[in-house]
Amino acid sequence: MSKTLPFTLLSFSWTVLASWPTCIVPITSTPYSYEVPSWLSLNYSCTGSPQVWEARPSRGKGIGVFATRPLDPGDIILAELPVIIIEPPLIRDGVAYPLTSVEPLLQAAFDTLSEEHKSAVLSLHAHLTPEEASDTETRLLPIFRSNAYLVGSLMSEFGLFPKGARINHSCRPNSNQVWIDKTGKRVVRAIRRIEEGEEISATYLPLLQSRKERQRALSQYGFKCTCSACVLGKAEQEASDKRRNDIRLAFHDFEPHLSLSVPQSVADKRKAQMNVEASMQLVKLLEEEELSDYLAPAYRIVALSFARIERWDQATIWAHKSYNLRLAENEDAEGTLEMAALTSQFISSWNEELYNKSKQQG
């Protein structure tokens, strides 16, 4: 969109922005082979395809989830209700209760499940300690420990999602998983283009760490990651680790500058211009590392950086890009509403700027 257009033409179509694929009711498909439990035959379909994923063996990873058609960023892969949801005991004296305190709650919830759901839960992988491996009756707690997610409006509960739990880890994931409080579901969406037959991956940990730190954190799940970010040669791995560290530091360093105040002094204006360039470099680093899940906050940083130097055209475009990504995750989330408001605000400033220029030229 050119800033030379008449100011009356500058507006974005919010209807178009909201037209992401929508999942409909579960449909029954044919049972999967490879002795995958029958519950996997229930899939959520999205506009354009009756089935977007399938579970089948993944080399070296047990069962994995694979795309049955090409998926674009924002496409819903599945939307799943938790089969078990647990509110753990409150923290006492600043210390969390041991996980064993959850076991009676977990067992009580498990006992209410249908046989199909019980089978689905017990079929999930769990990393067992030596003590747990020798005691077959303790399998439920390790499964829950290995596969549960934080859920709820305050993210203070634990939910178990058997379908989503089949998605394997990658340090360069192609999907993310977001809890939608309004529907009580955990929604998995593509965050970059996923080709037909490609394995769908998520992350089990924060990704702005070195390979060594990530592998150490993943040891609690009992596997060593072999994704594309973890099998690099020494020189490439060092470069990757540096990029991730630079990204982490950039997010931290930008935090004090994320305001709409326009700098007044020459020195502050120069620094604001440097921040614009640094924000663009942040986006470039994320793209090089294929960390798509961090792009929405990075686009926000770029938008605010341009706004501080009153480049309303670029501020609008980057705020709109961040809004697009936020909208795909959760239309009601605070971040989505913020980016919608900022985009509207920047459009108004851009229109006012063009109007003033047209008056001066007239």
Automatic annotation (TrEMBL):
Signal peptide: 1-18
Domain of life: Eukaryota
SMART domains tied to this protein: SET (SM00317)
PROSITE patterns the record matches: SET
Keyword field: Signal
Pfam family, one: SET
InterPro entries, per the entry: SET_dom (IPR001214), SET_dom_sf (IPR046341), SET_domain_protein (IPR053185)
Sequence ranges assigned to domain SET in this UniProt record: 38-205
Keyword Signal: yes
Transmembrane feature ranges: none
Name of the protein in question: SET domain-containing protein
Organism: Massarina eburnea CBS 473.64
